[in-house]
């Protein structure tokens, strides 16, 4: 099951990287909407509202991407916080069709096995003993 945990960590890193890229592209679209708002013939209220919506979604997607990158790194290091974080993210990913749903199902399948639970519990106990 270690191979599945490592693969899941890699998939979480990839998913998070895509979220960070999407957040950056939404910020560029927000900058474009602001540039349109500054044009003399443009409607500044509509363009400003569009820019605000793009910024809100960019921050949400980038935050989710950062969380996925963090969870992926923690999973690959077998840290108990990574297991918990990945399970929480999997609940939210269930609603991101189709790839987020597939990642969520795979996350549940891997991280809810007793063997994997024991792996993370032993790693957590070793980490606490090393402090």
Distance between the first and last residues' Cα: 27 Å
| Total E-strand runs | 0
The helix fraction, in percent, is over 70%
Series of secondary-structure elements, N-terminal to C-terminal: HHHHH
Rounded Rg: 19 Å
Structural shape: elongated
Give a short account of the largest sheet: none
Low-confidence stretches: none
Q: Give the total of domains.
A: 1
Report on this structure.
Helix content is 86%, strand content 0%. It is mostly helical. The protein has one domain. α1 runs antiparallel to α2 and α3 runs antiparallel to α4. The radius of gyration is 19 Å and the shape is elongated. The relative contact order is 0.16.
Task: Name a few traits of the molecule.
mainly alpha; 0% strand; 131 residues; 86% helix
Outline of the structure:
The chain is an all-alpha fold and 131 residues long. It contains five helices and no strands.
How is the topology of this model organized?
Blueprint: H1 2-37, H2 44-76, H3 80-93, H4 99-111, H5 114-130
Helix pairs in contact: 1-2, 1-4, 2-3, 3-4
